[in-house]
Specification:
By secondary structure, the protein is an all-alpha fold. The chain has a single domain, classed as Oxo-4-hydroxy-4-carboxy-5-ureidoimidazoline decarboxylase (UraD-like). The longest helix has 23 residues.
Length: about 170
């Protein structure tokens, strides 16, 4: 995986910038594309905050599209390489049949209730704490879960960006 300095990112064309940072937000390179217009970036925090500002300024349908671009936890479907690595780090790619069934049941219940996948920054969790979060968040309102999903997406983006910036 390539890494970049803030100075390198500031000198990039929009195409290079999107190539470098387009995967920070799952299947949504438009966020990097828009962030490029916010140059220059003074440091990691400045770049990250400008990306989050763009996400927060999105319309609700755009935010829902971002949320829906994320894979189900513990699923065996095709997903972005960053998601594969994050879920593998927690062992979600090696679930026992019982664990897999529990994750799938909760994924389906959550999607049925809210219309989008359950999102959590797996680097902050264990398998058990994710299952607890599923149960707790299934009790939330639709609006609360949009906010929660965007908060988790922002945390995932922070981890991904941190891995790319030297």
């Amino acid at each position: 995986m390539a890494s970049y300095t803030i100075a390198q990112l500031n000198r990039m064309s929009q195409e290079e910038f999107v190539e470098a940072l387009g995967a920070i937000f799952e299947e949504t390179p438009a966020i990097a594309e828009q962030t490029w217009h916010c140059k220059p970036f003074t440091d990691f925090t400045d770049l990250y905050q400008k990306m989050i500002t763009i996400v927060n300024a999105m319309t609700q349908p755009q935010q829902l599209a971002l949320i829906r671009s994320h894979p189900d936890l513990g699923s065996k479907t095709k997903m972005a390489e960053a998601s594969v690595q994050e879920q593998s780090g927690l062992g979600l790619n090696r679930l026992t049949p019982d664990e897999y069934a529990h994750f799938q049941e909760r994924n389906q219940s959550y999607k049925a209730r809210f219309g989008f996948p359950f999102i959590v920054a797996v680097k902050n969790h264990t398998k058990a704490s994710i299952l607890e979060a599923f149960d707790r968040r299934l009790q939330s309102s639709f609006e609360t879960e949009i906010t929660e999903a965007l908060t988790e997406i922002s945390e995932i983006a922070r981890f991904r960006l941190r891995d790319l910036i030297v």
